[in-house]
């Protein structure tokens, strides 16, 4: 095997079109990722396949084309715009004699550059170690001759690799314990905010949708914002100028299609701020022709972290890039704001957005009568613990009739609990289809 480079600045990009399915990626997004990573693009190699090749992922013909491009340009790294298996990466590296980084590895590299806080660095290191744990064999080039088998050729290589794996797993365990302490500290802060009735609004959205720019405009703060993917990694809390109650805004890491699972797991503590928020601002780039797909990608991640039931306002940002698009607020059938059309750069529609946020987070309580069977005693106890039960009666069958006044967010969290959900009716102020309709109307 070749000697691995310490780093790579000159890159060959590879994108395959699988026509449909989870493998479909966008070439423009790949180029943005590479630009964010600080690499110099030498050539873009494209192709199409029905399914990935089990050996090289690219197929033998395209792999040979990539090898020729690497040799011609003396490239230091080949970036593959898809997630590859460790064996596919290793096989392709052996063929092209160049370091290969797949989409997951590229995103991890960008996150490593962006992390500034102690927690952020721990989260990225954890994700990198989990990604590395399946690819350790690639780094041990000096043990190749010992892995070939035969008399006198067994043992040392395997022993070294197993030792390295144990060290990595021990490090992963250590970081997870440290992140658990960070999560406990964050939970204490959240409990303190709840006791003081401080509301939290979390900004979520596809990366480079303008979340940080909107965050700065709403809170009059100076969080780093740039026209690049994952410009902001570490979460930031700032107060919103709302008079009736104290409201904090949280700027979070941007989402992306096929966000590496290890990253979602590693950032679980940070993303808890999103799951536990009182309101989500789903920021969408209104001028992006792929906004519908990106809305779906964000909602998929929200579902993965358990935040799909948190009340939300879809904020269509960057309307200054669309002709004849005026700022406005759209409400559902109950008169509650569910969509906003704004420009974080020009400030158009921001005051109306603040009013909409205030309306959604102040005095947002659900009132209903709930009938629970006797076997739902745990849910009944939880409702009493939340001080949501205003009146209770028991009928002749032993069923509990509860009159509830409960915060809308707490109700959404209860409905997310699989044990409580069967007993709770769905109370929805708007549907996801409304957001899709609004996004589609932007094109006309």
Automatic annotation (TrEMBL):
This is GTPase HflX. Pfam families: GTP-bdg_M, GTP-bdg_N, HflX_C, MMR_HSR1. Its cofactor is Mg(2+). InterPro entries: EFG_III/V, G_HFLX_dom, GTP-bd, GTP-bd_M, GTPase_HflX, GTPase_HflX_N, GTPase_HflX_N_sf, HflX_C. GTP binds at residues 205-212, 230-234, 251-254, 317-320. Mg(2+) binds at residues 212, 232. It is found in: Cytoplasm. Monomer. Associates with the 50S ribosomal subunit. GTPase that associates with the 50S ribosomal subunit and may have a role during protein synthesis or ribosome biogenesis. One of its GO terms (cellular component) is cytoplasm. One of its GO terms (molecular function) is ribosome binding. Residues 199-365 form the Hflx-type G domain. Keywords: Cytoplasm, GTP-binding, Magnesium, Metal-binding, Nucleotide-binding. Belongs to the TRAFAC class OBG-HflX-like GTPase superfamily. HflX GTPase family. The gene is hflX.
């Amino acid at each position: 095997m070749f000697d691995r480079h310490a780093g790579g600045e000159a890159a060959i990009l590879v994108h395959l079109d699988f026509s449909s399915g989870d493998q479909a990626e966008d070439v423009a997004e790949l180029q943005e990722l590479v630009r964010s990573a600080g690499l110099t693009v030498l050539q873009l190699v494209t192709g199409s396949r029905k399914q990935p090749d089990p050996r090289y992922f690219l197929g033998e013909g395209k792999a040979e084309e990539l090898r020729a491009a690497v040799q011609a340009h003396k490239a230091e790294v080949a970036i593959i715009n898809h997630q590859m298996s460790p064996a596919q990466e290793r096989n392709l590296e052996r063929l092209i004699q160049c370091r290969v980084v797949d989409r997951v590895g590229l995103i991890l590299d960008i996150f490593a550059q962006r992390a500034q806080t102690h927690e952020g660095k721990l989260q990225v290191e954890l994700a990198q170690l989990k990604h590395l744990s399946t690819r350790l064999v690639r780094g041990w080039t000096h043990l190749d001759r010992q892995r070939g088998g035969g008399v006198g050729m067994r043992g040392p290589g395997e022993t070294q690799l197993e030792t390295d794996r144990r060290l990595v797993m021990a490090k992963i365990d250590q970081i997870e314990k440290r992140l658990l302490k960070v999560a406990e500290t964050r939970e204490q802060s959240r409990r303190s905010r709840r006791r003081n009735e401080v509301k939290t609004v979390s900004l979520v959205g596809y990366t480079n949708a303008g979340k940080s720019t909107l965050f700065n405009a709403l809170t009059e703060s100076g969080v780093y914002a740039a026209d690049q993917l994952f410009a902001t990694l570490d979460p930031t809390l700032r107060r919103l100028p709302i008079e009736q109650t104290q409201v904090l805004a949280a700027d979070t890491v941007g989402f992306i299609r096929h966000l590496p699972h290890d990253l979602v797991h590693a950032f679980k503590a940070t993303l808890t701020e999103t799951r536990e928020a009182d309101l989500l601002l789903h920021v969408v780039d209104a001028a992006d022709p792929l906004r519908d797909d990106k809305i779906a990608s964000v909602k998929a991640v929200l579902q993965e972290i358990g935040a799909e039931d948190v009340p939300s306002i879809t904020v269509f940002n960057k309307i200054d890039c669309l002709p004849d698009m005026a700022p406005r607020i759209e409400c559902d059938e109950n008169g509650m704001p569910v969509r906003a059309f704004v420009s974080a750069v020009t400030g158009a529609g921001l005051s109306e957005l603040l009013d909409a946020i205030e309306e959604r987070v102040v005095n947002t309580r659900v009132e209903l009568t709930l009938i629970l069977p006797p076997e739902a005693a745990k849910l009944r106890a939880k409702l009493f613990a939340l001080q949501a039960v205003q009146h209770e009666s028991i009928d002749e069958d032993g069923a509990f009739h509860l009159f509830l006044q409960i915060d809308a967010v707490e109700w959404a969290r209860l409905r997310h609990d699989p044990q409580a959900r069967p007993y709770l009716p769905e109370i929805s102020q708007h549907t996801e289809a409304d957001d899709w309709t609004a996004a589609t109307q932007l094109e006309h």
